[in-house]
Each structure stands twice: as C-alpha cells, then as structure tokens.
Amino acid sequence: MNSLKSTVKKALINTKNNLEYNYLSLFPTKVDIMSPAFIQKPHQILHKLRKVSPIHYLPKQKAWLAINYDDVVTILTQHESFSSSPFEHIDNGVFIGADPPEHTRVRDLLKEHFSYQQVIHFKRTIEYHTKCFSEKIKQLKQFDLLKDLAQPLTNTIIADFLGIDPNKTVEVRDNKQVYYSLPTIKPFLTNGGFLQNLCQDERFSEQETLDIIRFLLEAGLGTTQQALCNMLYITLLHPQVMDEVRNKSELIPRLIEESLRIEPIIIALPRLTLKDVQFGSVMIPSGSLVYASMVGANRDPQKFEQPDKLILHRHSPKPLTFGLGIHQCLGKHIANLQLQIIVETLLTDFPTLRSVYPLSQVELGTDILSRGVKNFKLTF
Ligand code: HEM
Questions:
Q1: Is the CB of residue 268 below 6 angstroms from any atom belonging to ligand 1?
Q2: 82 C-beta closer than 6 A to ligand 1
Q3: What is the pLDDT of residue 10?
Q4: Closest residue to atom 15 of ligand 1, CA basis
Q5: How far is residue 207's CA from residue 187's CA, in Å, rounded to a whole number?
Q6: Ligand 1: which atom is nearest the Cα of residue 98?
Q7: CA 219 to centroid of ligand 1, rounded, Å
Q8: DSSP labels for 40-63?
C-alpha cells in the first residue's frame, strides 16, 4: 500500500518536472478540452484529431488525451498502470479518487445495495414518483425539462433510494458543514434508510462513512438528470425512432444506451500513469496525466459504424458512458431503471411531446463532468 502511495507521489513529481516539453514534438494540439467551445461541440474536433493520431498531448492541460475505444478501455481497466488518484490537491475520498486496496474494500461492502437484484425492488417507488410528476407537468402548458422535471424527480428518487430527506438533498450535498461528523449528518437521514444503516456499520470509520455519503450524493444527483435531458434531446431529434420506441417499449433500454453513447455526460476521465505505457508509437512516461475520453470512445468509427447516427439495432461493443473496470459506475442500475421508467411514462403520457424552440437552437452546457442540454423547454 505504502509502495503504491510512493509510486503515485514520484509520478506526480515527474509531472512537475515539466516532462511535457519533450512530448510537444509528438502530437501536440491546441485543443483545450476544458474550454466551453470544446465541451459544447467536441465531436468534430475529436474526429479530426483521430485522423492524425489516437493519442494527443494537450499543452494546456499538461496531459495526454486518448480518444479511441480500445485505448480508453485499456486506461480504465488497467488500474495497476493508471491510478484514479491523479490530482495531488484534491481529496481522494474512498471512491473515484482511490486505488486498490482501499477502493476494493469500500466498493465490496457497498456493491450489494446497488446490484440489479436490489435496485429492482425499488421499481414501484420510481413508478409512483414519476407518475406524480407527470400529473403535475400535465397542468402546465410548457415546462423546462431540467428544472421542472429531471432535477426534482431524480432528486426525489435518489433521496428515497439512499434514505435522505428529499427536500434537503441539494442543501446536504452542497453544505460542507454537514459532513463534519456523524451527528451533524444524521438529522438529514431517513429512519431505517440505507445511509442511516451505513452510519451504524462499524466496518467503516466515521471519515469513510462521511466520504461515502458525500460522494454518493454528488454522483447520484446531477448525473441522471443530465442524462435524461441529453437522451430526450437526442430522441426528439429522431421522431421516427421515437415512434418506434413508443410502440415497442422493450426498445427503451436500447434507446437509453444509444442516445447516451451519442451524448454521454462525461467528456473524459482523468488518470495518472504509474509506469511508462506504450500506445502504438507513443510512449507516455510514468507520472503523466491522461484523459480517457468517453465522448471520443463512444464515437470511434472502428467500433461504431456511422458513429454520429442514432441506430437502435447495433451489433457493437458496449458504449463507455458508465465507465469500465473497477470504478465502473456503481449507480448504473438505479440510473438506468429511473431513465427507463421516466422515458416510458413521458412517451405514453405525452404523445405530442416536442421542443418549444427549434432543436437546432438548443445548446449543450459546458461542464466537463456533466455535459449536456440545460435550457430545454418542452410542450405537448
Ligand atoms: C446516467 C447517470 C450516470 C452516469 C452517466 C454515471 C457515470 C459514471 C462513470 C463514468 C463513473 C466512473 C468514474 C471513473 O472511472 O473514474 C461513475 C462512477 C460512480 N458512479 Fe455513476 N453515473 C451515473 C449515475 C450514478 C448514480 C445515480 C449513482 C448513485 C446513486 C452513481 C454512483 C457512482 C459511484 C459510487 C461511482 C464510483 C464507483 C467507484 O469508484 O468504484 N452514479 N459513474
């Protein structure tokens, strides 16, 4: 364990030594993957970069960018070579920013609650909340998909699933004081709920429990709502697909997978190389920051024929929207179940659902970890 920590430390020092100047001659690009311009329209840029090389050096980020599916799979699955703790200044926590064995221990203890078998018991509750929101929306002439539906509905569902006061989820997520100690967080937790049980679980230290709660709220709240907005946007762009799915609800899981392949909410995930790694002719030295791009991998023409098109009946590998490897999204079953039920309800209850403004005017927001459609007014 200590040896892993010291490798990470040495690796970070290497990065500081400005090794990047050696790489500029390889595949430098002016692209700034954090810039609003890139985040809004990354696809054309990535297709152009891909023609030059699958791996690029980003001087602005002092990091490497991997765009192709196979390389992204390598980065996400080979955790012995790619640490999930790439930023020295960021508190690693026990989840996304942790490596084995800490990460394995925590994940093993939590994974049962997030398994498909466990999540499916929650179906009725999701259906109930979704129906209530659908009735509310029916009273309106038009509605903002994010603010009036996606945000409050998915917050209510996740609050119920985790066992936290649904009216206080955002307040709890954003208020650092709440994570001070177990007594400061307990008043917000529901009796007998998952998080309250977690607080009594002696296998976790107090700090671990607080980290887990903070991270679950962060990971659970923003993601599904943004995913719902992106997939409805893509679906409305393809009315014929929408009609097909309305008549065959068994196609909804495919619609979710395919629309989130086209517009995943995460642009790229950061990793730190723990040893020298070779990608084709490019050698990335130990201690380098690498971004594995979901947006790039999900539209890799080597894996997805006509990658920019929404095609429900594909025979291609799984998109990487939910990540892969030991950190693959723990919440993917609860996220998918919510999306399935909400989309099915919307398609059934609102047969004439459409955008208030031309879809060409709809803009995608510019957050690297929650990219997508923000101001989307719908009517029916
Ligand atoms: C459509 C919605 C969602 C998407 C697209 C998504 C995406 C992802 C991705 C790509 C990762 C991997 C990060 C990495 O490898 O560094 C991840 C991790 C994670 N997600 Fe999600 N997520 C979603 C919803 C949720 C929900 C609803 C929850 C919980 C209630 C959740 C909990 C987590 C957790 C705990 C991890 C960390 C797993 C680990 O490090 O072992 N996610 N998510």
A1: no
A2: no
A3: 46
A4: 327
A5: 17
A6: 40
A7: 6
A8: HSHHHHHHHHHHH-SEEEETTTTE
In this structure, what token pair is assigned to residue 47?
Answer: 């297709």
Q: Report which ligand 1 atom has the smallest distance to the Cα of 338.
A: 27
> Which tokens in the block code for residue 219?
């990971």
- Bridge-based pairing of strands 63-66 and 289-293 is parallel
C-alpha span between 307 and 80 (Å, rounded): 31
Among protein residues, the one with the nearest Cα to ligand 1's atom 42 is 331
Residue 211, C-beta contacts closer than 8 angstroms, at least 6 positions apart: 93, 94, 95
What pTM was estimated for this model as a whole? Answer: 0.91
Query: How far is residue 95 from each of residues 67, 267, 302, measured CA to CA in Å?
Result: 24, 19, 32
Q: How far apart are CA 29 and CA 25, in angstroms?
A: 10
Tens of pLDDT along 177-213? Answer: 888 889 999 999 999 999 999 999 999 999 999 999 9
* Strand (E) or helix (H) holding 58: strand 55-58
95 lines ligand 1 (CB under 6 A): yes
Alpha-carbon span 219 to 369, nearest angstrom: 10
Whether 227 is in the pocket of ligand 1, judged by its Cβ within 6 Å, is yes
Give the residue extent of every domain in the chain: 2-379
Amino acid at 351: P
Q: Ligand 1 atom closest to Cα of 326?
A: 41
- CATH 1.10.630.10 fits domain 2-379: yes
